[in-house]
């Protein structure tokens, strides 16, 4: 079902918030005139006035008669907090959606890899594991090793469609791995546990135990989702205390 089209005033509200987030607008800055905003967004001045009223009600701007509209200095943190919350929630949603995709894709690939992997495939997966060991104290190396590990399992499935899908989504996959590793490795003890999880998956694939490989990959991704949920709830609890 298509998303309902945003009203003109909401587009303006969202854009002004984005300008603030990007640093193009600072607390105390004066907004363009109604005429300039109407021209910039190709909307009526009525829509501009409605947008400004919404922002004023939320305490994001102050409208001074005869002077114009200004980003409120005292309340600017409110806007920042709302934007940060929106961004965090959006990122969380995307991460969860990517994990759902990974669960569908990689669980099956682990199953297939355990039946189809060649000695070359197994060597590539093993090399990725070695890189993960080397990347314990190197964030970027760890991320690349993690991505390589999962990529090589997809390669080992010898399913060209799965491989194309993984490669198409590799940039999003990398962002997701970066975010989930950041959550998981806040506790140094989780570093080795994470590597051990990957080693168990590799050993199941190498031994040809398809059901075990499938189960371990499913457990791995499910655990990541559980930890992300716990982390989110923990942050919400801290904020409310």
Automatic annotation (TrEMBL):
Keywords associated with the record: DNA-binding, Transcription, Transcription regulation
Q: Which Pfam families match?
A: FCD (PF07729), GntR (PF00392)
Molecular-function GO terms, alphabetical: DNA binding; DNA-binding transcription factor activity
Is ATP-binding one of the keywords? no
Q: Does the keyword Nucleotide-binding apply?
A: no
Identify the residues that the record assigns to the HTH gntR-type domain, covering every copy.
6-74
Put simply, this protein is called: GntR family transcriptional regulator
């Amino acid at each position: 079902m298509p998303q309902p089209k945003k009203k003109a005033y909401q587009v303006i509200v969202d854009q002004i918030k984005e300008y603030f987030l990007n640093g193009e607008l600072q607390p105390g800055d004066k907004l363009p005139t109604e005429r300039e905003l109407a021209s910039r967004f190709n909307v009526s001045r009525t829509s501009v006035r409605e947008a400004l009223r919404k922002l004023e009600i939320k305490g994001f701007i102050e409208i001074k008669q005869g002077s114009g509209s200004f980003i409120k200095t005292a309340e600017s943190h409110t806007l920042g907090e709302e934007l940060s919350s929106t961004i965090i929630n959006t990122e969380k949603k995307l991460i969860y959606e990517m994990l759902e995709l990974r669960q569908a894709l990689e669980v099956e690939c682990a199953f297939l890899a355990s039946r189809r992997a060649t000695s070359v495939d197994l060597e590539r997966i093993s090399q990725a594991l070695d890189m993960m060991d080397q990347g314990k104290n190197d964030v970027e190396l760890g991320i690349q090793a993690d991505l390589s590990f999962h990529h090589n399992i997809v390669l080992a499935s010898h399913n060209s469609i799965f491989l194309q899908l993984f490669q198409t989504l590799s940039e999003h996959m990398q962002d997701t791995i970066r975010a989930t590793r950041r959550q998981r490795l806040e506790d140094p003890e989780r570093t080795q546990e994470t590597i051990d999880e990957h080693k168990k998956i590799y050993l199941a694939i190498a031994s040809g135990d398809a059901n075990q490989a499938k189960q371990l990959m499913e457990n791995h991704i499910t655990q990541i989702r559980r930890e992300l949920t716990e982390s989110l709830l923990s942050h919400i609890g801290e904020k409310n205390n």
